[in-house]
Amino acid sequence: MTETVVGTPAPRPVTSAPGNSRDTAAPAARNSGGRLRALDGLRLLAALMVAFYHYGGRGGEITRAWGSSPSTQFPTLHSWFAYGCLGVQVFFVISGFVICMSGWGRPLRSFFASRVARLMPAYWVAVVLVTAVFALPVVAYDAVSPSDALVNMTLLQQPLGADRVLGVCWTLWVEVRFYALFALCVVLPGASRRRVVMFCAVWTLAAAVADAANEPLLDLVLMPEHAPFFIGGIGIYLLYRDRRDVTAWGIVAVSWLTGQHYAVAELWHRPGPGHFSYRSAYVIIAIVTLGFLAVLAVALGWLRRADWRRLTFAGALTYPFYLVHEHLGWVAVEVFHQRLGLPAYPTLAATLACMLFLAWLFNRFVERRGTRLLREALAKSR
């Protein structure tokens, strides 16, 4: 989970490249004061969707934390919580938008430094914290082996076959691959509208071919099931620059059409004892559509009135909250519900409050200093 899970940078000055008349400043950039605060709020909303899914919309370890199935704890809402996993797709749309914004006009070294510095400090601390908590004798969940815990510090645990410390880190592995593709194809040669459009077109077609070929290496690199959401976010950023860009509208439309297909194929009536099945295809399509529309509304300036400073604070909490909420949430739910005897809904509220407070501590004492120091160190390195 990603850029989705990273901060929204201030827009860079938009200038027209030679022979590229489409690169015109967006009204939203001129009027927003430099930050898209509504996007910060949308990011936290997506993170909360995922949290509701992890706490009440699926089985697995959370069943042990509650002492019974979440379908028993939330007899009415569990079927709606099951749709919360679609917050990840919303994250990816936001990520496509933000990465295109932050990479435009930026040299490769600066882009690399900003991504590493934004992701890694909080991630490293989260890995250490979850490993330490799970190693406590009073905690009922197994910690990964010391070797696997160390591999997790690289964010390469999935391709190396190691156990994951953080269940949500699979989305970070997806994000890292997206960053690499965008850096090599757009940032390294220099971002321009023409190059970004070509990147979106080629990736869309190549992802479809990879899906048809059923070749693991192509799937690994091109990520057919996730590509439409990143590409859709990039197309929305082009509309942020120029809402009259017909090609960008086409990119967004094709991405939405293919994205809803993958979302339905993956989640509708999904089998497996760890999931609640019988999700409605219509509801999945509706949520994906609302995700695209919400980011589009921010880009086109329709939400410029939602320029509240508290949304910046909400955006700052999103990434650390996303990192810690699942596994430490299991511990919190067990303590509040089984040991202290709180009913299900107060337990849910207390767990969310604890995870948000922990996210604030991460932002205050880890991210603010660690991100700056690591970015400066990487930017100066040769």
Provide structural commentary.
It is a single chain. The protein is an all-alpha fold and 382 residues long. It contains 17 helices and no strands. The model is unreliable at 2-33 (pLDDT under 50). The longest helix has 37 residues, at 344-380. The protein is globular. Helix content is 69%, strand content 0%.
Bin the helical content: 55-70%
Order of helical and strand elements: HHHHHHHHHHHHHHHHH
- Low-confidence stretches are 2-33
State the helix count: 17
Q: What structural class do you assign from the helix and strand content?
A: mainly alpha
Main pleated-sheet profile: none
Overall 3D form? globular
End-to-end CA span:
30 Å
Q: Could you tell me the mean pLDDT?
A: 89
Rg from C-alpha positions?
21 Å
Q: Would you report the number of β strands?
A: 0
Share of residues in strands: under 5%
Keywords:
382 residues; mainly alpha; single chain
Chart the SSEs and their pairings:
Layout (H helix, E strand, L loop, with lengths): L26 H5 L5 H20 L4 H6 L3 H4 L4 H4 L5 H17 L4 H27 L11 H7 L4 H4 L8 H19 L5 H21 L2 H7 L4 H15 L4 H22 L13 H19 L9 H31 L4 H37 L2
Helix pairs in contact: 2-6, 2-16, 6-10, 6-13, 6-15, 7-16, 7-17, 11-13, 11-14, 13-14, 13-15, 14-15, 16-17
Précis, in short:
With 382 residues, the protein is mainly alpha-helical. The chain is 69% helix and 0% strand.
